[in-house]
């Protein structure tokens, strides 16, 4: 049987690559691994090696629509990042508040809790802590890496 062991990377098209790259770098603290500038597009790739996260931002120069993202169009709905505990989720909410990034606050669900916010192009991002990933004191357990919300209830 063929297997998938994870994601290689996530690529997002943005309207202003410098603005978006600065925003992602400042908020997440990721390292810019590559800056590729071709005639038709420019791409900045971020790596968070300890967590095996690779995110690329692309601006399609002359073909760019420069419109804002909406999850109601066919394509990406949102991007959700896992954190190891509810306490860390609270810390992310505080980090967003400190940067005046509008967010949902911590919302608990049957599967866990989530903070929802948007990037400069209105792309919906989430930080999620799974209920199975924490103990009664909301500390991470061995299961935290595998906790994620259901696709739809």
CATH domain fold name of the largest domain: 2,3-Dihydroxybiphenyl 1,2-Dioxygenase, domain 1
Let me know the CATH homologous superfamily of the largest domain.
Answer: 2,3-Dihydroxybiphenyl 1,2-Dioxygenase, domain 1
Q: Into how many domains do the coordinates divide?
A: 2
Please report the distance between the alpha carbons of the first and last residues. Answer: 29 Å
Describe this structure in words.
The protein has 153 residues and is of the alpha/beta class. The chain folds into 2 domains: 67 residues, 2,3-Dihydroxybiphenyl 1,2-Dioxygenase, domain 1; 81 residues, 2,3-Dihydroxybiphenyl 1,2-Dioxygenase, domain 1 (Roll), CATH 3.10.180.10. The chain is 16% helix and 29% strand. The chain contains 2 helices and 8 strands; from the N terminus they run βαββββαβββ. The strands form 2 sheets. A 4-stranded mixed beta sheet has the order 1-4-3-2, with helices on one face. The protein has a 4-stranded mixed beta sheet with strand order 5-8-7-6, covered by helices on one side. A hairpin with a 4-residue loop joins strand 3 and strand 4. The longest helix is centred in the middle third of the chain and has 13 residues.
């Amino acid at each position: 049987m063929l297997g998938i062991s994870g994601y290689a990377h996530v690529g997002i098209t943005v309207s202003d690559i410098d603005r978006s790259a600065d925003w992602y770098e400042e908020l997440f603290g990721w390292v810019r691994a590559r800056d590729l500038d071709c005639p038709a597009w420019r791409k900045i790739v971020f790596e968070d090696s300890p967590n095996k996260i690779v995110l690329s931002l692309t601006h399609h120069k002359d073909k760019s629509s420069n419109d804002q993202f909406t999850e109601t169009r066919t394509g990406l709905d949102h991007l959700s990042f896992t954190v190891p505990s509810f306490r860390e989720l609270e810390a992310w909410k505080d980090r967003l508040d400190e940067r005046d990034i509008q967010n949902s606050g911590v919302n608990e669900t049957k599967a866990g809790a989530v903070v929802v916010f948007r990037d400069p192009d209105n792309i919906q991002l989430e930080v999620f802590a799974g209920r199975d990933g924490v103990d009664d004191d909301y500390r991470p357990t061995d299961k935290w890496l595998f906790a994620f919300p259901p696709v739809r209830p």
